[in-house]
Amino acid sequence: MNDYPIRTANVGMVSIISVGEACIVQFGDRAETDAKLIAIAVQRRESHTTAGDVFFESYPMYTNPLPVLNDPDFDNGQVIRLERTNCIPNITVGLIAIIAIASSTSVLIGNEMDLKADSRIKNIRQYPRQKPYPPIGC
């Protein structure tokens, strides 16, 4: 339960130098976010053009369902109820300075009701193993 008015963000200035891929920057309110990111990061000694492609379908981590939260207290009706009263409905900030936003980050200046985010990244390193040195004296 919320006491109205909902808080309002008053920002004097925002400075953002760099925003990467899969990032969200929003000024204002939003009701719901359902963000998903899937990525494969491949590091190889051999060129990607000659070493072959890597496919998302080869890795079950991208299609596995999210784990289910098991909370017996919630299932038994022991719900924690949160009530808040915004005595001063304004949040005032002079300057927000951000150097870089990356890796599926969400920056929101405003209110949000529901946020769900899923980021699945597979790191692959394909380097040949070093040959063991022969024992000394051989």
Strand content: 35-45%
Taking all residues together, what is the mean pLDDT? 83
Instruction: Strand order, main sheet: write it out.
Output: 1-4
- How is the main sheet built? 2 strands, parallel
Q: Can you count the beta strands? A: 6
Looking at the chains present, what oligomeric state does this protein adopt?
single chain
Write down the secondary-structure element order: EEEHHEEE
Low-confidence stretches: none
Helix/strand/pairing class, anyone?
Answer: mainly beta
- Number of self-contained structural domains: 1
Proportion of helical residues: under 10%
Number of helices: 2
* General form: extended
Distance between the termini: 79 Å
- Any idea what the radius of gyration is? 24 Å
Summary, kept brief:
The protein is mainly beta. It contains two helices and six strands.
Plain-language structure description:
It is a single chain. With 138 residues, the chain is mainly beta. The longest helix is centred in the middle third of the chain and has 4 residues, at 48-51. A two-stranded parallel ribbon has the order 1-4. The chain has a two-stranded parallel sheet with strand order 2-5. Strands 3-6 form a two-stranded parallel ribbon. The chain has helices at residues 48-51, 72-75; strands spanning 8-19, 24-27, 30-44, 90-101, 106-109, 112-126. It has one domain (8-126). 6% of the residues lie in helices and 45% in strands. It starts with 7 loop residues before the first strand and ends in a 12-residue tail after the last strand. The protein is built from two helices and six strands.
